[in-house]
Design goal:
By secondary structure, the protein is an alpha/beta fold. Helices cover 45% and strands 20% of the residues. It contains six helices and five strands, in the order E-H-E-H-E-H-E-H-E-H-H. Strands 3-2-1-4-5 form a five-stranded parallel beta sheet, sandwiched between helices. The longest helix is centred in the middle third of the chain and has 19 residues. The protein is globular. It starts with a strand and ends with a helix. Its cofactor is Mg(2+). This is Phosphopantetheine adenylyltransferase. Its main location: cytoplasm.
């Protein structure tokens, strides 16, 4: 069974993330969405909220692709998480050259830690290349319309969260 790990903070999950998840399902039999518990980033959404949003969005993809998709929070090293879930590959989305420079460094370090786990890069679709969760949150905080970047359910969650 081919198992892939797609890690991120997903704060919140965007259409760009969903595009990468959908495309990754064609590469694996089981896709683990690794939700990073990164206290240093100070996420807008609590871990439980992020997990619930991802599960809701992935339910549709499971039906469409017939691929097993599970959500797995983690706080350890990415390469250790990949080993923990039995992943043979880590799936990363790329938007721009700047992403590649950072990811290139990460791959080198991960290969030193465990050379049995490959990293696979998927380029974001052109319509999703500018989408970043950080920018989505900033636009939403300033009462901008983020409906082009997230699903209606995530948009509603942002509005609700930021109106408190």
């Amino acid at each position: 069974m081919r198992v892939g790990l797609y890690p991120g903070t997903f704060d919140p999950i965007t259409l760009g993330h969903i595009d990468i998840i959908r495309r990754a399902t064609s590469l694996v039999d089981r896709l683990v969405i690794g939700v990073a518990i990164n206290r240093d980033k100070g996420p807008l959404f609590r871990l439980e909220e992020r997990v619930a949003m991802i599960e809701a969005e992935c339910a549709k993809l499971i039906e469409q692709t017939q691929t097993e998709i599970v959500v797995h929070p983690f706080e350890n090293l990415l390469i250790d998480c990949a080993a923990d879930v039995g992943a043979q590959m880590i799936i990363r989305g790329l938007r721009a050259v700047a992403d590649f420079e950072y990811e290139y460094q990460m791959v080198g370090m991960n290969r030193q830690l465990n050379d049995e786990i490959e990293t696979v890069f998927l380029m974001a679709e052109a319509t999703h290349q500018a989408i970043a969760s950080k920018l989505v949150k900033e636009i939403a905080r300033l009462d901008g319309d983020v409906s082009k970047f997230v699903t209606p359910q995530v948009n509603e969650a942002l509005i609700t969260k930021l109106s408190r």
